[in-house]
Design goal:
two-stranded antiparallel ribbon; 261 residues; globular; 12 strands; 3 helices; Porin; ten-stranded antiparallel sheet; mainly beta
């Protein structure tokens, strides 16, 4: 199933995510985050954009096991809404997401967004083919082209990692859910410091979407650059920015990552 098909299927009471979207023993976090976002918007005033979402990966959302999503509107004010989604499998909570929605308002404060870094065009970067058994299953749906830092487990001592990304099969429309799904596709930037393959997983993830939202076409390449702020004792703290092809800031991401090595 494609990303678009899974979003459509999630409208029902239960969803079974296929193994093809796995990331180790869990489902790809970008997909579960996008599914949570898509469910939350159902309980919010139509047209009110999401400004921020915090995701806690309580346990692995397993492929091929029915998952239910419970959305709750915590509060709705004149301009701001607060929502929550729980993903439940086999009677236990696997993911909790909080969403903050806010309508626009007049303000005397205007600060230009962070500019996109210099990077070669995606057409000038080497494609990353999907290699079954070597790469996470979900990467068969998302292509990444490296511009910054090294590959995972390459022993490179860089703070930054990233490059261009897009769905290999573009959806009809790349909404906020699609942007959220793409953001989490990249491996944790700290993995390039290692020389041997070890497990790693996200403990928490925060996404902020820029509004008014810059235009992003369904088949457009998005530029991602992550920076490791600090790592130690098996944890890493990483922030990232995402820009469209015009160099306009689209989203901001922050993760706390657990690495077992």
């Amino acid at each position: 199933m494609t990303f678009e098909e899974l979003l459509a299927a999630s409208a029902g009471d239960q969803l079974i995510i296929p193994e093809s979207w796995a990331q180790g023993r869990a489902t790809f976090g970008g997909l579960t985050g996008a599914l949570a976002f898509d469910r939350m918007k159902e309980v919010v005033t139509p047209g009110r954009p999401m400004r921020a979402m915090q995701v806690s990966f309580v346990g692995p959302v397993e492929p091929d096991l029915p998952v239910t999503m419970e959305a709750e509107l915590l509060r709705e004010g004149k301009a701001v809404s607060q929502t929550m989604v729980r993903m439940v499998q086999d009677g236990s909570t696997r993911l909790v997401a909080l969403g903050s929605y806010g309508g626009g308002r007049e303000s005397a404060v205007t600060v230009p967004p962070v500019a996109a870094p210099e990077a070669p065009a995606p057409e000038d970067c080497r494609p990353t083919p999907y290699i079954e058994g070597l790469m996470p299953s979900f990467t068969q749906f998302i292509e990444m082209r490296w511009c910054f830092g090294g590959l995972p487990f390459s022993g490179k001592d860089h703070r930054e990692m990233g490059g261009w990304m897009q769905f290999r099969e573009p959806p009809a429309e790349l909404g906020d859910a699609g942007v959220i799904g793409l953001i989490d596709a990249w491996p944790a930037a700290i993995l390039q410091h290692l020389t041997e393959r070890v497990p790693a997983s996200s403990l928490s993830w925060s996404v902020e979407l820029v509004h008014p939202r810059p235009e992003v076409k369904p088949d457009e390449w998005l530029l991602y650059r992550a920076t490791t702020d600090q790592a130690g004792e098996g944890y890493g703290h990483i922030h990232a920015e995402i820009w469209n092809r015009k160099g306009e800031l689209v989203a901001i991401s922050r993760q706390t990552v657990v690495v077992f090595g």
